[in-house]
Amino acid sequence: xxxxxxxxxxxERRSASPIRIKTLAPLAGTVTAGLIVLWIVxxxxxxxxxxxxxxxxxxxxxxxxxxxxxxxxxxxxLHQIEGRLAELSAYQRMxxxxxxxxxxxxxxxxxxxxxxxxxxxxSIITDAKTPSxxxxxxxxxxxxxxxxxxxxxxxxxxxxxxxxxxNLIASATVPAxxxxxxxxxxxxxxxxxxxxxxxxxxRKIE
Amino acid sequence: xxxxxxxxxxxxxxAFIAVTALALLYLxxxxxxxxxxxxxxxxxxxxxxxxxxxxxAERELRLAAGFAGKYAEAQxxxxxxxxxxxxxxxxxxxxxxxxxxLTPVIRATGFQLAGxxxxxxxxxxxxxxxxxVFACYMAEITGTGSFDTICxxxxxxxxxxxxxxxxxxxIQGQGKERPAAHRVSIRIEWPIQMQNKE
Lengths: 206, 198
Known about the structure:
Chain A is of the alpha+beta class. Chain A has helices at residues 21-93, 98-108, 148-161, 163-166, and strands at 113-125, 132-144, 169-173, 180-181, 191-200, 203-204. In chain A, strand 1 (113-125) and strand 2 form a beta hairpin. In chain A, 17% of the residues are buried. Helices cover 55% and strands 22% of the residues of chain B. A four-stranded antiparallel sheet of chain B has the order 1-2-4-3. Chain B starts with 6 loop residues before the first helix and ends in a 5-residue tail after the last strand. Chains A and B meet through helix 1, helix 2 and strand 1 of A and helix 1, helix 3 and strand 3 of B. Strand 1 (113-125) of chain A pairs antiparallel with strand 3 (165-172) of chain B, so a sheet runs across the interface.
């Protein structure tokens, strides 16, 4: 038989655990308070550092802002002036060297055709995204003899397909009724007058 | 400090401590933590914006020297283009300027000049449309000449400036009596720089 004698009163009892609430609580409190203070200090330092960085950046920006605005203005001016030069270059490229066209036209006109009138007119097409310039060429002339019709036909074919003109002329036609007998004073029965309309290729302004 | 001996009192005290701690945490978050986080975020945004602006400005400034050179060169080219190839007014008159520049050239070709008639301005044909700083000054040159003379005339006019365009040509024969002399009307357009858009 075992006998267990309890000589301690209740308030004299101690826990057998080495970690006691009475020692742990102040320690935990101190550590927590210390960590909180440390965190507050670090946060304040971080904010202060950030503010200082911000002030430094603001100062740096204030030093370079005027130069930056001037540089942006220069770039914008350069862009504008290059745009103007491009506009003029595009305009120059659209030009038709009409003296060449007229000389070629003279060279291709058959000897038995006499051109009596030549009209060149232009239209600017602005409805498309890229505006373009188109020319029309209207020729009036006279010819005579049994070869009148084939001569005019050959001339028409030449205007519509010869490499001298293909860059400028898209199509050439004799309007209905435009090849007819010459009714002017002094004309013979074999004399013919005609008209040829040439539609030019639109030249894009780009 | 001693905890109360009674279990109920001890629990009450612990509950009170827990509630107080939670209340303190909530107050700390509301009064200190949240505004501080907001201020930090705001500072961060400001700093990021400023850093972006500075980086962009530094890039721009590194390229600025090149742009300045290109701009000076482009400006010189544009100045040459305007003074040499565009029609410049004389005391505000494009008509006088046109006549002074074209009349001697036309006469040198042997063309019988009847007149140079100003027609007026027309919008410059470009992608910019009406926003363009240029316009086309139109004029009509009339007279008589042989076909060869007309070819020389057109060539001489176009040689005055690479910007001159011949937009319309009318050549009419004068019958069998004068087969070598044609009535001619040539419409030209010559770009001008609009003063109010410079």
